[in-house]
């Protein structure tokens, strides 16, 4: 697989990208878990933006090829969620760009920590997050809406 980095722009959420957010995450869920799981994907303004969170998009020209949500838990803690890259662009450093932008966005809020919930089945993703500095912390099944999630990873920002 070619790993050439593409030149993409990372941009903030605007309503015209709502369908891209839903599409990319549904595609990711289906490809890795065999089904689309019902969650907050259909109304990101209400469930993410209006709650103090953020959504970022990776754009290649006019095409939205990746996305990442940042959920506000409180002023000191955010969760990175719903990170997805279109299948044809995986392995081209799009996720790295989105993660970096997401962590920078959280850092600017003054938060102390960001975390994410993932699955031990996603070994490439786990290694990717470890390389970025995330460390596994205590997982509680109550904290995840996603079936199959069994790993919590955190990154201290201060």
> Which homologous superfamily in CATH is the superfamily of the domain at 9-112?
Gcn5-related N-acetyltransferase (GNAT)
- Which band does the percent of strand residues land in? 25-35%
Can you tell me the CATH topology of the domain at 9-112? Aminopeptidase
Number of helices: 4
Largest sheet: 7 strands, mixed
What number is the mean pLDDT? 87
**Can you tell me the overall shape?**
globular
How do the strands line up in the largest sheet?
1-2-3-4-5-7-6
Nearest-angstrom radius of gyration? 15 Å
Derived from helix and strand composition plus strand pairing, the structural class reads alpha+beta
Order of helices and strands, N to C? EHHEEEHEHEE
CATH class of the domain at 9-112: Alpha Beta
Could you tell me how far the N terminus lies from the C terminus, measured between alpha carbons in angstroms? 37 Å
Total DSSP E strands: 7
Task: List the main descriptive attributes of the protein structure presented here.
158 residues, 7 strands, seven-stranded mixed beta sheet, globular, Aminopeptidase, alpha+beta
Question: What is this structure, in a nutshell?
Answer:
This protein is α+β, with helices and mostly antiparallel strands and 158 residues long. The protein contains four helices and seven strands; from the N terminus they run βααβββαβαββ.
């Amino acid at each position: 697989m070619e790993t050439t980095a593409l030149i993409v722009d990372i941009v903030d959420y605007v309503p015209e990208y709502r369908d891209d957010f839903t599409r990319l995450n549904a595609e990711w869920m289906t490809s890795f878990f065999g089904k689309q799981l019902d969650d907050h994907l259909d109304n990101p303004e209400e469930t993410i933006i209006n709650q103090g969170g953020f959504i970022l998009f990776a754009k290649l020209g006019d095409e939205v090829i990746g996305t990442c949500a940042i959920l506000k838990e409180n002023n000191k803690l955010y969760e990175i969620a719903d990170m997805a890259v279109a299948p044809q662009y995986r392995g081209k450093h799009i996720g790295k760009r989105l993660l970096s932008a997401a962590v920078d966005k959280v850092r600017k809020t003054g938060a102390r920590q960001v975390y994410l919930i993932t699955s031990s089945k996603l070994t490439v993703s786990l290694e990717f997050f470890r390389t970025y500095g995330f460390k596994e912390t205590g997982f509680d099944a109550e904290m995840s809406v996603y079936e199959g999630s069994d790993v919590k990873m955190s990154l201290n920002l201060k």
